[in-house]
Amino acid sequence: MNQPDLSRTLWHKSSHSSANGQCVEVARNLPGVVAIRDSKHPDGHVLVLTAGEWQAFLGDVKDENFSL
What we know:
Layout: E1 12-13, E2 24-30, E3 33-38, E4 47-50, H1 51-63
Antiparallel strand pairs: 1-2, 2-3, 3-4
């Protein structure tokens, strides 16, 4: 997948995020993809998932089918 243009990305943190800066930001305003970044490093790497990959990830998190 080619890297999408992230110049107009609207980043959002979860309302459950704490003030300690340990947050993940998600952008869902890009056509067909979801972008994810570490809020501590806003100019760092961005993970880009297809809409299907994002839905599968959310399903696994909700079902606790993941390991770190």
